[in-house]
Model the fold of this input.
Amino acid sequence: MAEVLIPADDEIAAVDELNARMTVPIGTRVPNPKPSEFGRVVGTGGAERDLVTDGATLALEGFAGTETRARRICAEMIAHLQAAGRAGSVGGVTCYGVRAVSLPANLPMPSVPDRFRFTATVTADLRRSRI
Done:
């Protein structure tokens, strides 16, 4: 019987990695109550790279009281994930690299009107795991 491999939990891997590296809280949703600054990771799909690796696509969001800080949080999220990818592991998942698909862009979120939001997109080549 062929080995069964499942895609890595890309959101949790990225959140775990970023929380270990950054000073602002990172999660997968907007926290309630909201801290003054925070980041969010949202898995947006991706594509199979080969039999054992997926190119997971992740949206990164930085929220803060100023545009400068929101952009900086988002940029640091990219930088930390790329550094982890170069080291070979994102949140404990084997990683063969992280590429920035789009750099930080100012994109306000109507449901969070009291914070500026910058977004970026990365792809992470994550190894699948056995069931």
Q: What stands out?
A: The longest helix spans residues 67-87.
